[in-house]
Amino acid sequence: MIMECKVNKKCGGCQLLDMSYEEQLQYKQRRLEALLSRFCKVEKIIGMDNPYHYRNKVQSAFFYDYKRKKNASGVFQSGSGKIIQNDSCLLENRTADRIVKTVRELLDSFKLRAYDERKDVGFLRHTLVRVGFSTGEIMVVLVTAKPAFPSKNNFIKALIKAHPEITTVIQNVNPDGIPLTLSSRNITLYGRGYIEDTLCGMKFRISPDSFYQVNPVQCERLYNKAMDFANLTGNETVFDAYCGTGTIGLIASKSAKQVLGVELNKSAVKDAVSNAKANGAENIYFLCGDAGEIIEDMAKEGEKFDVTFLDPPRAGSTARFLNSLIKIKPEKIVYVSCNPETLARDLEYLTDKRYKATKIQGVDMFPHTKHIETVVQLSKR
Ligand code: SAH
Predict the structure, then answer these.
(1) Residue 288 a catalytic site member
(2) Model confidence over 171-182: pLDDT tens digits?
(3) What is the pTM of this model?
(4) Atom 22 (ligand 1) nearest CA
């Protein structure tokens, strides 16, 4: 079955929507095999049972339509930055889409307007809705150009009345014109200013700008595979490189002796520390800095880890990191990748030395898009 989307061609977000889901999975499997089967057998990609409306994070751009004398909202076209109007998306959480529609209708009924950069009138730039899949908690972030929010109290009251499932509403004041960005200025208008979600039995706090995987259903499967590949028994020392908000390391900490997470982004490290606290994990600590630099220092000091996870950004890891990783000699390396091309390059490097790839598994985290997530187990030769 192929689902129809009215704005697919214009939006550009779903590159594979012309294929059935089964064909998409076959296509991704073939891509993985072409790039990775020379290292080891590629297991059959893990697809979704229901590959629609999986996104727990929905961003919508707003503008005022002067012809129709109404507010309008939609998605940014990939590349051009044009706003493509739409009310529902095959990838986005349905409740989130309904909330965005309500926000737009409320703007009209309160005689408020989306912000117009050229005329410097109106106030709402865009909205961000985040949903905790397992907790049902919902955050609505209203990103405004200025702090003034006319009829604020009545607006929020009407929004909550229409959607009692919303647990927190935040105003983010962002004078900066870069599309869909948040500033650091958050004003909590309702609820506690963040939501929580659980993943593999651990609790995670999601603030307006926290990094959190957008497909929690598949993310749990991916992390379970990564844990499976790590073979932890409770006695291991674990290194979690490119750890983000600490998710992989925290899940591993339940079955390891000690975990060190390393991450470049300061606010992600802050979230990682509070996630560790919220879960009562006392055997995990975090360092903020470049993973390559930190592992190089550790290798020089002769530090050892039994298991290393790495989950680098699309550009993959670096020669500096991989070189030191080999010196640290972990029994197992678990590489989580969002880009099979850079993964192949890095595997080339690692397997050339003292490691061999022993398991490769694709997980479809982003159905209908061209993106492929992979997890690889490497073992010492
Ligand atoms: N493991 C996490 C996050 C993976 S995303 C999760 O599953 O949620 C990749 C992370 O690598 C990002 O958080 C990014 O900030 C971080 N990063 C990018 N370059 C880095 C570097 N040189 N050193 C350490 N971390 C880096």
Answers:
(1) no
(2) 999 998 788 899
(3) 0.92
(4) 290
